[in-house]
Write a structure and sequence with these properties.
The structure is a single chain. The protein has 4 helices and 3 strands; from the N terminus they run ββααβαα. With 159 residues, the protein is mainly α. It has one domain. Strands 1-2-3 form a 3-stranded antiparallel sheet. The protein is globular. The two termini are 15 Å apart. The relative contact order is 0.16.
């Protein structure tokens, strides 16, 4: 899905980032963040969070448990901090580099959770049968990927 220059939602300007999300998209992100916050409170054993807390040692259960015990709190705290930053900047028209990084982290977490729920691995999420019962979820997954791509491109000074 290609957008012209005037349609970009995130644009780098002199070390800061213009955020051009329409109100409906800001509302969508707000609702998704609420859902993510709820899921994060469930802990790393919830299967929908599998991609947020992947195994570090393959099939070595004992090492994986130790790794999870040592890292889970820091990972969860970081994700919640990113969610809070996005929530407080949802109405902003301009973001600092740190705020934009939080946006990237929170949106990536949302995309990972949604991708897990849809069991997505590859392919174009926009290439979905409109009659598929998960069609809206696939479109949402694609939207989050597109928004993440715009953030990365803005951070790299691209476009």
């Amino acid at each position: 899905m290609a957008f012209g220059r005037d349609r970009r939602r995130v644009v780098e300007r002199r070390g800061r980032y213009l955020l051009r999300l329409p109100a409906g998209e800001r509302d969508l992100v707000r609702g998704l963040l609420n859902e993510l916050r709820t899921l994060l409170a469930l802990g790393p054993d919830d299967p929908r969070l599998r991609r947020l807390y992947p195994a570090a040692y393959g099939e070595d259960r004992e090492s994986n448990e130790e790794y999870r015990r040592m890292t889970h709190e820091d990972l969860a705290t970081g994700r919640l901090a990113a969610v809070e930053t996005v929530e407080t900047t949802l109405t902003a028209d301009e973001l600092t580099p740190e705020q934009l990084t939080a946006w990237m982290q929170a949106l990536n977490s949302l995309r990972l959770v949604l991708g897990t729920m849809l069991d997505v691995d590859e392919g174009d999420p926009f290439d979905v049968d409109p009659d598929d019962p998960d069609a809206q979820q696939y479109m949402l997954y694609g939207y989050l990927g597109m928004l993440l791509e715009e953030i990365v491109q803005a951070q790299l000074g691209g476009y």
